[in-house]
Amino acid sequence: MSQPKAAFIKIPTDKTGGFQTMPVEPEKRLSESDIRIELCTEKDVEKIAEGLYACFPEVWWNMKEPLSLRPPEQSTRVQRMAKRLLPSFTNPHMNWVKAVLTSTGEMVGVAGWLGPGNKGIHNIFLRSAIDYYGWKETMGWTDEEIDEMWEHVSDEAWNVEFAKDDEIRRELMGEEPHWFLAPLLTWPEYQGRGVGKRLLDWAFVQADSTVPVTPLYLESAPTARAVYMHCGFVPQGAVNMVRRGPAVVKGLEAEDEKKKKHDAQKGSLEKVSVEVVAKEAEADLSG
C-alpha cells in the first residue's frame, strides 16, 4: 500500500491569493464531512476583516498600513476594513464563500470570488471601487466617512499596487468573462488541513458547469505556483495564473503519469543491464 502524501500549510505572501507551502502531517487534514461550504452574509463581514489581519503576515501589513498611520486600537482597523468590504455584498457577482466546521459552525476559511458578468475589471479592495461601483450613494457615505476609512492606508502600497494588478489582468483576460479570486484565507490553526482546496472546489464547480467552461484567474506568489498548477492553473507571468477547466488538470496528471512510467521503465532497463553485466563478469571469472 502506498504511503499518504504530506499535506501543506498555506501561508499568505505578498499577493492576494498567494501562498508559500510548508509540509503538514496527513492525519491532521480534515475529512470532507468535517467542513461545510456556505455563502457568507453581511453578518460575516467583520469576521472576514479579522481573517485578513490574522492570515496575511505583519510584514505585508506594515507596507499596506504603515505603523505611523495606524490607529492605536486593532479593533479600529478591523472595523474600517469591514466597513470598506460591506458594500461588496450588494454586488450580485461577488461571492464571499466560507468554510465552516460542521460540528460548531465556526468559520475557518473564506474566499472572495468575483464572478463573470461583473462590471469590467476593478478590484473591490481599491478605494476607487467606491466611485466605480457607486457605493458612496448605495451606502449613504459622506466624504468624511470615506476619508476616515482610508486614512491609515498607504495609497502607493495599496491602491497603486492593486491598480497595477488590475491592469495586468485586463491585458491578459481582455473582455473574456472569468472568475477572479481575491482573497483566499484559511485561519492559521486550520491551514494545511484541506480548507483552502474546498474553497477552490466551490468555484471549480461553478466554472466547469458552463459550456464552454469559464476561466478562473488569480495572482500567486512563486512559492505557491505548484499548488495552483496541481489544481489546473497555468502560469501567465510572474504571479498571474489562469485555469481553463478540468481538462488542464487531466493533462498535467497525464504528463506526470507518463514521466513516472518513463522513469520506471528506465529503472527496469538499468536493473536488467546491471544483472547482465554481473552474469557476464561471473562467467568470465569462472572461465
Automatic annotation (TrEMBL):
Domain of life (superkingdom): Eukaryota
Q: Which InterPro entries match?
A: Acyl_CoA_acyltransferase, GNAT_dom, Trichothecene_AcTrans
Any one GO molecular function term: acyltransferase activity, transferring groups other than amino-acyl groups
N-acetyltransferase domain location, by residue? 183-234
Q: Which SUPFAM superfamilies match?
A: Acyl-CoA N-acyltransferases (Nat) (SSF55729)
Q: What is this protein called?
A: N-acetyltransferase domain-containing protein
Naturally occurring in which organism (per UniProt): Clathrospora elynae
